[in-house]
Write a structure and sequence with these properties.
single chain; 487 residues; mainly alpha; 2 domains; 19 helices; globular; membrane
């Protein structure tokens, strides 16, 4: 309607006995059917995307079960040593010192390994949901909504898993104390005093680490532009500078312990001073190399592809390892820790037993501490390798089926996964062997055997072969569960 016609329309007079009625919009607003025009629209709450949590869990059972199993095992491993510290606070004398050493030293190193493995597993589980995060943002979900959804979802999973893990942790604590009493390391008068407080502290610490790892993993995908976040999942991504700095700091710290062992503690009157410094070196270097696993895998796979890529399976495996090292590195990191900690500690124990044979034998408490460290870390790292491969292959099932659809035989696709396991196993075992040398060489020098130990050299190749077998076996078992077509 033109302005002229509007201006020429006569204005209807207001009848004094019938005042103007409110508009239809105003009447509906007054009745509560529609919000008034002046009301500001509130931002959508988490509930608008919260319904996606259940479908996400249902369609990714292997990845989330692997994360939940890691949280459960973390609680079961760390909990017993925390209860030993609580029991030590109610003891005195040599019993208190032995319990504090067992709970503090062994539990402290176990806690470092567990927390790193936990953060790595939760991080890769969340990063595997980049497609889902990008889709949510594409249809209008805000980044804060996505981050809150992932944090709350992870919190529920971690709470349930830690609650279940607290049960074996309590029984494990009692069994560990009984073993210490039966071995004569503590007196029979020591009673189990650990329980609620220590386990509660363990549960809270693991939940906080899990929540922090999920928040860090989802932050980049939820804050970056949608196109950039999608590209991170498909192509190679650069390792953050802070992560390289952390890796370098850990490696240099471990090398510093090696130097201190050869220059200072090797001349100490207490022979176990050298063990304390040398034993820390391989663990620190192993964790440092594991932090830089994506960069190391990318370089190693690229070099192998240029020289040794023969056949479709090896070409697929090496190409994927070089392009998507940031995803496949989750299977390399626990292999490095497994190889470095087991080789370094077992060879250290062997050198200690041989060098102390003429001085009345090795201290039983120290020997037990070393054995417990090796068993605990090795078992946990082995489980981490199996879980990492299960989660990685479960996430790539669609990709593996697409390779079959474009012409690759199912046997070729499965063999490519096994080759990836061989690559990570060989690289992880080699890096772990280098990390173990940072412990073995200085300690052998400190005990008067020279740079090369006088015995026990068979341990290194045997453990390297065992580590490679674990990596290849885990990859083969995960690949065997992938189905193609009517299989």
């Amino acid at each position: 309607m033109s302005a002229a016609r509007t201006a020429s329309r006569p204005v209807r007079p207001v009848r004094p006995d019938r005042p103007d009625r409110p508009s239809k919009r105003a009447r509906r607003a007054a009745a509560g059917l529609t919000p008034p025009a002046s009301t500001k629209r509130r931002p959508a709450r988490l509930g608008s995307v919260g319904w996606l949590a259940r479908p996400s869990l249902r369609h990714r059972p292997a990845a989330f079960l692997a994360a939940a199993l890691t949280v459960l095992l973390s609680t079961a491993v760390v909990g017993p040593f925390a209860t030993l510290i609580e029991t030590a606070l109610h003891s005195s004398g040599e019993d208190r010192l032995a319990l504090l050493i067992m709970g503090g030293v062994v539990g402290g190193w176990g806690l470092i390994i567990v927390l790193y493995s936990l953060a790595s597993t939760i991080g890769i589980t969340v990063r595997q949901r980049t497609d889902e995060i990008v889709l949510l943002r594409t249809i209008g979900a805000a980044g804060t909504q996505v981050r809150a959804l992932v944090r709350r979802e992870t919190l529920v999973m971690a709470t349930v898993a830690t609650a279940l893990g607290a049960v074996p942790a309590w029984f494990g604590a009692r069994a560990l104390l009984d073993a210490l009493r039966s071995g004569g390391l503590v007196s029979d008068d020591v009673r189990f005093r650990g329980g609620g407080l220590a386990l509660l502290a363990t549960v809270v610490a693991i939940i906080l680490v899990t929540r922090l790892a999920a928040a860090l993993a989802v932050s980049r995908a939820s804050r970056a532009p949608v196109r950039e976040a999608r590209a991170q999942q498909v192509g190679p991504s650069r390792l953050p500078r802070w992560r390289l700095l952390v890796a370098a700091a850990l490696v240099l710290y471990g090398l510093g312990f090696a130097v201190v062992t050869m220059a200072v503690t090797a001349h100490s009157d207490d022979p176990y001073d050298a063990m304390m410094t040398a034993g820390n070196a391989s663990l620190l270097v192993s964790i440092g190399l594991a932090v830089a696993a994506p960069r190391l895998l990318q370089r190693f796979a690229g070099a192998l592809r240029a020289r040794f890529a023969r056949g479709a399976a090896s070409e697929l495996a090496l190409s994927n390892a070089a392009r998507r090292a940031h995803l496949l590195s989750s299977t390399l990191a626990p292999v490095i820790v497994l190889a470095g900690s087991s080789i370094g500690t077992l060879m250290l124990v062997d050198v200690d037993a041989r060098s102390m044979a003429g001085a009345g034998g090795a201290d039983e408490v120290t020997k037990l501490l070393n054995i417990v460290v090796v068993v605990m870390i090795s078992l946990f790292a082995t489980i981490m390798v199996i879980n990492a491969w299960a989660a990685a292959v479960a996430h790539r099932r669609g990709e593996l089926r697409r390779l079959w659809l474009v012409g690759a035989a199912p046997r070729t696709v499965r063999q490519s996964v096994v080759v990836e396991g061989l690559v990570t196993g060989v690289l992880g075992a080699g890096l772990g062997l280098a990390a173990a040398a940072v412990t073995v060489v200085p300690f052998s020098w400190a005990r008067g055997e020279g740079l090369v130990p006088d015995g026990g050299l068979w341990l290194a190749p045997a453990l390297v072969a065992a580590v490679i077998a674990v990596a290849v076996g885990s990859a083969a078992a995960a690949a065997s569960r992938v189905t193609f077509g009517g299989q």
